Amino acid sequence: MLEEELISRTDKKELSAEEIAAILPHRYPFALVDRILDHEPGQWAVGRKCVSMDEPFFQGHFPGRPIMPGVLIIEALAQTGAVAALSLPENKGRIAVFGGIKNARFKRMVVPGDVLELRCRMLRSKGPVGVAEAEALLDGKCAVKAEITFSLI
Length: 153
Hints:
The protein has helices at residues 3-8, 17-23, 70-86, and strands at residues 35-40, 44-50, 96-106, 115-126, 129-138, 141-152. It is an alpha+beta fold and 153 residues long.
């Protein structure tokens, strides 16, 4: 999806957890992006989620066989995309909310110790509504992909 763009970039725009918190309203335990590795405001973002056994959802999903819920991987992808959308000066202070999820595919289980690379690229937007393609990678292989529709409020 973003491979060519990422390889050719020499001016990466990385964001720390503190910088992400200045853009997104999400807080623990729902802040699901640890770092933005690179982004182009209004266009795309690449993030990282380090999955730890200390995540609160592992207490019940599933005892003895912890697996990160697919809906939370989609949420992490949406938060990555929200960083791209909300990084535009005209969107400062807004919130990105789900409008829909299409063609979600779950291809690999995500377990404690995994590091997810989260990629989200805007496909189109009109007014406050947009559509993005998103994928979560484990060791360079697709774990989850989906098309996400969002609205900025």
